[in-house]
Amino acid sequence: MQKIMKRKKSGKLKICLAAVLCVLILTGCGRASGRDPQAEAAQPLRIVATIFPPFDMARGISGGQAQVRMLLRPGEEVHSYEPTPQDILAIQDADLFLCVGGENDVWLEGILESMGENAPEVIRLLDLVETVTEEEKEGMTSREHHHHDEEEHEHGDEEKHEEEHDEEPDEHVWTSPSNTIRMTEAIAHRMETLDPENAAVYRENAASYIREIEQLRDDFGTLVRNAPCRTLVFGDRFPIRYFVEEFGLDYYAAFPGCAEDTEPSAATMVYLIETVKREKLPVIFSIEFSNGAIADAIAEASGAARLTWQTCHNVTLDQFEAGETYASLMRQNLAALKAALYPEN
After folding, report:
1. What pTM was computed for the model?
2. Half-sphere exposure of 146 (CA within 13 A, CB side)
3. Are residues 242 and 195 part of one domain?
4. pLDDT-derived band at 157, boundaries 50, 70, 90
5. Most exposed of 24, 237, 250, 327 (fewest Cβ within 10 Å)?
6. What's the number of domains the chain is made of?
């Protein structure tokens, strides 16, 4: 799986480098060229985030005092995102750039390096919290194992050794409320440093944002602590390992969090259906932007209900225009979790 993902990311990197070349041709010397320092000082702090969670944190902290932009378009799936020359320009013009910093963001490093001294301040979420690698649970369909077996047969132990040391951290760090609190604190501190004139506003807004997440964390904790059931089943990818680790939940899923697979093996389907039946689980989950076909099939075979878990990596255009936030999406997950952990007697 990792080799397939790397080929896709390599293609994305080539597109990005071509976009950078276009930007450099169009803008000449970049950030330092032709800018009036007085006009620059009069502009609000400019923040660009790759995906919704850091965008929402910065937006909440800003309270309208900074310009905050998200590169991922509402309704777009993060694994299919490809930057445009306009996106590269936005990064170049930013004062602060927020990204996850994992394998999905590998294309960014070359872009930032090409900007040299004109590159913005960068915060990588993976640098702010303790990370874990993606876990392969029993029953999961793992294309990596399939390709690993083939490559071991063809290339021997040397290839096996190389792949064993090629693990990447699970990038979905924001699914843990505690991680989100730490990341919000770090982003707020950097914003205060870059824009001391509005530091008091950022500090107050960050405190308010964090209080809301702390309340969410407490509500999730209370819900789980008293629950008669502690197992979740995802008929989909599983991008919430940080969440289940924080609250002590167990889980089963069709694929790991960043899997490219869309078709589970027959063994995976049987395993998940039997798990739902054996443990009498009332809910099977799918994630946003998924067609839900796998979860629907498991639900039909097991008698469970299908619900959606909001991973918060992005929102639809309607949600964006309605002002949905990380906290409001997690409140939806709180209701879904209650349905999953408190089966009717």
Report:
1. 0.85
2. 9
3. no
4. very low
5. 250
6. 2
